[in-house]
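Protein record

Derive tokens from sequence
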Amino acid sequence: LCVDVMVDFQVDETLHTSRAALTNFVREVRKLYNDVPFHNFQHAVCVFHSAYMFVLSLEACWSPLECVGVLLASLCHDLDHRGLNNAFQVATMSDLAMRYNDQSVLENHHCASMFQLLDKHSLLSKLSRADVKALRKMMIDMIMGTDMTRHAAQLAKMEGIQESTTLALDNDETRVFLLVVIVHSADLYNAFKPFASSQRWTKRLYREFNLQCEVERSLGIEPAAFMTASTTKEVAQGQQAFYNYVVLPWFQQVARIMPDLAFIPDACRRNLLEYNK
């Protein structure tokens, strides 16, 4: 699926590489995702597919380089995630926290891991220096944009721009920001999937949360309250808050500036109704 989508978006032609090279790259990406309940390769493919569908659904004409960027960033956005979040990395002063000075620890690691893998497979070697620079910037922005500590600032920025009919799509900064929005929105795919699928992914997420809580307690660290939910009622209450305060405000703004994605808030509301029950 991943390679087919990349070829459909002519990633092989843009990077002057082959389908076989892309296949080898994706296979190694899969190996670098760990066997954790939520942030695994299946999650990466869901984000990748959602980003692909978002880009397809918009009328804006993305450049070939932007298509490469959004596909690679969405596929690699959680590369080598160990199932332990940024707060845990900082609290335990992990090697990654020390390396990245407590700032977007995992996102920095995912970015670095992606670029190391791209370099290993020489996938950017035939691009011009200017294209590599532009591609690096947009992919870094997209992966850093999945850090939930940046969510509020991104939401505020969306609230300050006009609808897509008047967006300055000839402005590189605006275009890259829209791609950041797309990848972050794709990372929230669980909220707008059909409820049966959404609920399965939610259970996986809370399983990962609960496993981290167990490790934290063993280290004498007090777990975050939202991660301790384990019963059906507790999880539903957590999801009610997440939908009301994070998901719906975000996708309402997404739908406002990208009207082709207006179906998403409605899908989220349907899932929220299920949790309300």
The longest helix spans residues 232-257. The mean pLDDT is 94.
